[in-house]
Amino acid sequence: MSMTRRDFTRSSAAGLVLLGLGARPAEADRLPAAQVRALRAAVRGRVLVPGNSGYNGARVIFNTRYDGVRPPAVVQVRDPADVQAVVRWADRYDVPLVARSGGHAYNGGSTSRTAVVVDLGHLDGVRLQDGIATIGPGVRNIDAYAKLAARGATIPSGSCPTVGIGGISTGGGMGLAGRGLGLTLDRMRSLDVVTADGQLRRVQGDDDLFWALRGGGGSFGIVTRLRLRARAVRRAAFFRISYPASARAEAIAAWDDLAPTAPDDLTSILTLTASSASAFGQFFGSEAQLRRLVRPLSRVPGASLSTGTSGYLALQRRWAGCADGGLAACLDYQRSAFAASSVYVARRLSARGRRAFLEATEEGATLILDSYGGAISRVAPDATAFVHRDVRFSVQILSYAAIAAARSRVRRARAHVAPYGNGQAYQNYADPDMSGALRAYYGSNLPRLRQIKAQVDPANRFRPAQGISA
After folding, report:
1. E strand or H helix that includes residue 449
2. Is pTM beyond 0.70 here?
């Protein structure tokens, strides 16, 4: 398959160590001892503050870019009652909070120099009954896939195996089943959430908070349980196709013609670097049907196509880059530094646009194009907080390198690509260096999100990076 975030991590980790990425951590905002004692008395889970054994391991997230961030405390909650207790404690002492499901937020949104981190990793149950998957926010992608696959079912989610369901689903949830099954948030039927008043609420239907949590992220409360409509599936077909550097422009044109308007059951991704192009995808149908569908992609000079059919869990492990070694291999990852951004494209690219994409790769960044349309586009832009419905594809702009170099590469590459976008960006590929980020993430839904924030969290208790304020 083409290079994934996991592949980048493994190939670049040694070089990153040599470049000395770990900035010296700044001193954390210290909580008064009396507040720490009160917090520990309120919860059953561990409360880790600077100086405690285990604090340094608990505070870091996937991206070493944020290793210098030292939160005042990390609370490893054990259950929803612990979450309520932390929120009530925070209200008593006027302390801000951020939630962490998997710790993969591109903008460091699950850590903070000033806010206490509520670590949801122990809220990791998965249950399937009557077609509804009940999942804790701390469940990792690969574990959700594995436990549901054992029952012949799945939900749509991403490909990175260690991403937490709570974070990916409240921001969107695009993956290799997206065009067929929709985003993760599109399958939600209800959520349990602790709000700023310390109450545990079940939200669903036309509840404003349910609307906001489907795309609005972690600014409104802390989700403790998700219920999603599962899909029965045991197998799927897949393809991979690679192109030489000389055929990259033709590969973009062929993929752009096919991928966003293909039958819903096909979701595909095109990856572009300075030296190559490749595409891969997943299809809920037969391998013979898939080969017919992707035939236009194989007509590009120098194309090399392979296809196959696989059990569904094995296929998700393929996308995760851990097909060998068992499930344990999927959870064995190396942390590294990277910078990323994104652009949404709503119109077919012109020849000039295709050249601009190739120029972007010459800046040293990789472009990863995810096909939209299908089930995603059949939801109205204002039906959930996720506004990006009328687009052809997203472009993730990614660089794994020493962080100063990575940021520079991404910034320069984005300058090439952005003129061909619609002004929007994917909130799950959050870019802390992007100006006008909230408008790009939420578009015309931003005013309503701000109104709901004012209603449910007037004190701004929940403060993720690039969060929504009233």
Report:
1. helix 446-456
2. yes
Distances (CA, A) of 155 to 30, 168, 214: 41, 12, 15
**What kind of fold does domain 126-232+444-456 have according to CATH?**
3.30.465
DSSP 234: S
Class of domain 23-119: alpha beta
CATH number of 235-315+327-442: 3.40.462.20
Q: So what's the pLDDT on residue 27?
A: 62
**255-260: long-range contacts, CB 8 A cutoff, minimum separation 24:** 255/279, 255/297, 255/369, 255/371, 256/348, 256/349, 256/354, 256/392, 256/393, 257/296, 257/348, 258/293, 258/294, 258/296, 258/297, 259/369, 259/371, 259/393, 260/371, 260/372, 260/373, 260/392, 260/393
Outline where DSSP puts E strands in 121-259. Answer: 126-129, 132-135, 153-154, 188-194, 200-203, 222-229, 231-232, 235-244
Give one word for 364, left, alpha or beta, with left for phi > 0 and alpha for psi -120 to 50.
left
Helix (H) or strand (E) holding 281: strand 276-283
Amino acid found at 148: L
Contact 227, 460 (CB under 8 A): no
Max CA separation in the chain (angstroms)? 69
Tens-digit pLDDT profile for residues 142-197: 999 999 999 999 999 999 999 999 999 999 999 999 999 999 999 999 999 999 99
Task: Report whether 124 contacts 77 (CB < 8 A).
Answer: no
